[in-house]
Q: What sequence folds into this?
């Protein structure tokens, strides 16, 4: 049986995110998390941006409460993705499969599922993408966490630049609309203004105000942005 | 980070995902909540990018990270695939540190 194109895309997506997982594993252990904690976070939390936020706040010396608040604010978007993903689940799907679906509801799987032109393939593409990202994200995390010492200085490999650049790629679809762009510019401005004066983690938390500014000034993002990216 | 905080984060992150999937709380489907919710990621990610690129122990500095992030950002703008964005950014920063 030939591999269907959406499953091949899912595999490629997983491998790409696996590279990002290595960067997370290295950041997590250099931030003071144990290897077991880094892996547990990737399995249980399983939403990359929140994990990076939590690890970088902890690594910079921020309080666990600030780390938790920033990470949870970032993970709230998965709830909005879930509303779209729920419509892809065929009737009669058992509850355990719905729970797996919930855990796999992240940026990449949602985007891959909703991007399929054929509605019949959307749920399969979502699951394939989610499982592929889950496997490679966790393998990458384990590799990065264990290899932290073997890899040597993560800075020499430029891994500290990998995660901000990855986030630019993630938010690029939103930046192509003016309200998304304003939210990003306002969030960035708030961070620049606060970094020198506040405790670690506060600037990222406060940047949520940027979303409010953009929403009030320009209204919501048009429907497809960030969902079919 | 304590195991307690980690498990709390896991529970909270899963609760958001499950709330969407199981349709808990129809209020979440109001246009204002959804509109604001979808603008949170660009705002927070932009702050994380600034923090990860320029923050050095509470001071804003321009170093080798900025070069990699700018090159990665250009690649992302030109619709390069995710893996390529990550790799060009890391390679550029690593290269700048070799100079």
A:
């Amino acid at each position: 049986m030939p591999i269907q194109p959406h499953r091949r895309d899912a595999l490629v997506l997983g491998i790409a995110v696996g590279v990002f997982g290595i960067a997370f594993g290295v950041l997590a252990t250099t931030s003071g998390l144990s290897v077991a904690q880094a892996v547990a976070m990737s399995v249980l939390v399983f939403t990359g941006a929140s994990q990076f936020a939590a690890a970088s706040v902890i690594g910079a010396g921020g309080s666990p409460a600030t780390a938790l608040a920033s990470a949870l604010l970032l993970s709230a978007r998965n709830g909005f993705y879930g509303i779209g993903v729920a419509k892809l689940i065929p009737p009669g799907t058992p509850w355990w499969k719905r729970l797996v679906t919930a855990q796999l509801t992240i940026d990449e799987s949602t985007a891959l599922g909703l991007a399929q032109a054929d509605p019949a393939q959307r749920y399969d593409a979502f699951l394939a993408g989610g499982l592929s990202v889950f496997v490679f994200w966790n393998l990458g995390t384990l590799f990065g966490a264990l290899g932290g010492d073997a890899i040597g200085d993560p800075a020499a490999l430029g891994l500290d630049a990998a995660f901000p650049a990855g986030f630019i790629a993630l938010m690029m679809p939103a930046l192509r609309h003016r309200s998304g762009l304003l939210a990003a510019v306002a969030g960035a401005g708030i961070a620049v203004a606060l970094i020198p004066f506040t405790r670690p983690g506060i600037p990222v938390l406060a940047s949520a105000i940027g979303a409010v500014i953009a929403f009030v000034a320009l209204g919501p993002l048009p429907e497809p942005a960030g969902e079919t990216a | 980070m304590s195991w307690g905080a980690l498990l709390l984060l896991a529970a909270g992150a899963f609760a958001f995902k499950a709330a969407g999937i199981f349709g808990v709380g129809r209020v979440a489907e109001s246009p204002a909540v959804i509109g604001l919710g979808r603008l949170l990621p660009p705002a927070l990610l932009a702050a994380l990018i600034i923090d990860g690129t320029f923050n050095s122990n509470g001071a804003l500095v321009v170093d080798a990270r900025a070069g990699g992030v700018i090159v990665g950002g250009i690649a992302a703008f030109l619709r390069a695939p995710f893996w390529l964005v990550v790799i060009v950014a890391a390679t550029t920063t690593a290269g700048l540190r070799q100079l």
In short: The radius of gyration of chain B is 18 Å. Chain B touches chain A through 78 residues (CB under 8 Å). The mean pLDDT of chain B is 89. The longest strand of chain B covers residues 55-56.
